[in-house]
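**Sequence, structure tokens**
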Amino acid sequence: MVMIKNRVELETINPYVTAQRQVEAAARKLGIEEHVIEILKRPMRVLTVNFPVKMDDGTIQVFEGYRSQHNDVVGPTKGGIRFHPDVTLDEVKALSMWMSFKCGVVGLPYGGGKGGVICDPRKLSKSELERVSRGFIEAISQIIGPEKDIPAPDVYTNPQVMAWMMDSFSKLNGSYSPAVITGKPLILGGSEGRNEATARGCVITICEAMKQLNLPLEGATVAIQGFGNAGRISANLLAELGCKIVAVSDSKGAIYDPEGLDLAKVEQLKDEATILDYGTSYQIDPSSLLELNVDVLVPAALENVITQANADRIQAKIIAEAANGPTTPEADEILKANGVLVIPDILANAGGVTVSYFEWVQNLMNYYWSEEEVNEKLSTIMVRSYHEVSKLAEEYDTDLRTAAYMISILRIKKAMKLRGWI
């Protein structure tokens, strides 16, 4: 019965409302004026497009897509493009807001952007996927560009999709424009270290939190919800540091071994079939993974998985949000009361956009860094940002999420004031 309740709650929670509530909570703690809050609660520009695509069977299908640009006061907007059958306008607006505050908390000269196309790429052939990718970028081409809005990969998009999009924009623009998009293949101006960046940034914040709580990394138990790119790489990086990965899940199910999973075996099963082939005796209900007694829980999949319905049963000491928006505001209150340290998404998974920023900078100057340089620069930014957020949280006696929003809101407000917007 609890599982059904959680599913219903997952379906009915509006991420845009959640994002607005998070902004309000942080802004009011700072005593920000109402008109500034109203500006921050809404994207400055949202484009809805409908574009035709010729399918392999000769029929024409019309696809709907969105691009939301939240606030460009400190620089061009930045954010991914997702292809998913459940993409909604409110989801895209919320994600663009979260991107603004994510960029702000790590001090990048960007505002937030986000895009999405309602489609199921798993049902498209490669040529159909290419035509959808090119069709969408052509439809939004007037509002994107290296100095306007820089897209990137997101759910069910990848470096190949970015390559097609960059190529289409370059043709429309009449010149090679690698800086219009990040997350590209290396040969087309991608950055070393980008694929691991989201996970690496998350692991860096976990390490800082563990030091803060005087918890040893060696032998620390970790559960990871979502074994996609971020979850999988996080698991490997944490294992290299001596942590014990005891549970992982994906869209098909979850497995748990209190003695520690064999990661190499889990990865092989993930690639060849399903992680559930690890063994029937290791299978657990995916919802129970969130409630395991572990040192670190890494939600690396969907929004709204930690809610009022299950927050009181969370036993992890640290939650590091590799996914966007996995925790609802009601759940945050419960977790704080229970002494759970939540490293918020806009900080924990900011490694991805940070290295995307590095890619953009490298594209603009046409000079490229080694992976070691990229990782060193990423570590410097993530460690500094974690401690800035932690210090402000202590100063205002609040949680890390609210403090992270506060840092971003102060930055955006100062820029708007100086530019004469308010």
In short: The domain at 196-348 is CATH 3.40.50.720 (Rossmann fold).
